[in-house]
């Protein structure tokens, strides 16, 4: 093992995967293509932040505002069995980790409002009635990109939905800090995808957000 062998191995495999190159793609079921929330529009006009582009919900905004995301891990659940006086482990199911995303908050609180609206369709806090999973869950695509922003690996979270979002701290001693919010997603299972299949999943997700 020497530095030349290491460099050669990295080079022939396309280089090292940069942790700051990624893409997150999903279209919340509660968000329509047109953003016609009258209260938000009037508020943005009064605050001087109105932009006609905000009348269109662009799915790419979610990816741009995503500061960090975790690629999920998987654990095999096992039981121990005594075989020839030796304890061996045998798998019987698997557990996928929840996925956490952290988003930058803009002055219109776009991500906060979107997630609040999404969760209201999952569980109504007034009537204590839960919705149907097929109505409130979506597939979420997470892609690792290379230095040219081309997908090299991805996972699809099947039937994902936000189970929690963290509180936001407002602090007058943090003059130059900006607000962020972390969201945890549950899902049925994740499916690893290669560059082509992940690109196809991203295209289907974009089409679903328009239809």
Primary descriptors:
211 residues, alpha+beta, Pnp Oxidase, Chain A, seven-stranded antiparallel sheet, two-stranded antiparallel ribbon, 28% helix, 35% strand
CATH class category label: Mainly Beta
Helix content: 25-40%
Number of helices: 6
Shape: globular
Listing every helix as H and every strand as E from the N terminus to the C terminus, the arrangement reads: HEHHEEEEHEEHEEEEH
Content-based structural category: alpha+beta
Instruction: List low-pLDDT spans.
Output: none
Q: What's the number of extended β-strand segments? A: 11
| Major beta sheet summary | 7 strands, antiparallel
- Evaluate the radius of gyration: 21 Å
Q: Tell me which CATH architecture applies here.
A: Roll
- Report the average pLDDT across residues: 87
Give the end-to-end Cα distance, rounded to a whole number of Å: 54 Å
Number of individual domains? 1
């Amino acid at each position: 093992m020497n530095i030349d062998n290491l460099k050669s191995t990295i080079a022939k495999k396309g280089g090292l995967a940069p942790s700051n190159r990624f893409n997150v793609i999903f279209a919340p079921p509660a968000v329509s293509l047109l953003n016609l929330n009258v209260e938000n529009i009037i508020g943005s006009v009064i605050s001087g932040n109105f932009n006609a582009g905000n009348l269109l919900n662009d799915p790419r905004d979610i990816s741009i505002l995503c500061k960090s995301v975790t690629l999920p891990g998987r654990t095999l659940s096992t039981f121990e069995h005594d075989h020839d006086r030796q304890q061996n482990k045998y798998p019987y199911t698997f557990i996928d980790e929840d996925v956490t995303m952290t988003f930058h908050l803009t002055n219109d609180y776009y991500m906060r409002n979107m997630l609040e609206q999404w969760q209201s369709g999952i569980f109504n806090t007034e009537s204590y009635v839960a919705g149907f999973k097929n109505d409130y869950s979506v597939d979420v695509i997470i892609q690792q990109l290379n230095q040219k922003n081309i997908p090299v690996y991805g996972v699809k979270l099947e039937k994902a939905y936000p189970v929690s979002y963290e509180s936001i701290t407002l602090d007058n001693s943090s003059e130059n800090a900006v607000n962020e919010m972390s969201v945890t997603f549950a899902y049925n299972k994740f499916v690893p995808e290669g560059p082509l299949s992940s690109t196809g999943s991203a295209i289907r997700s974009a089409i679903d957000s328009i239809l």
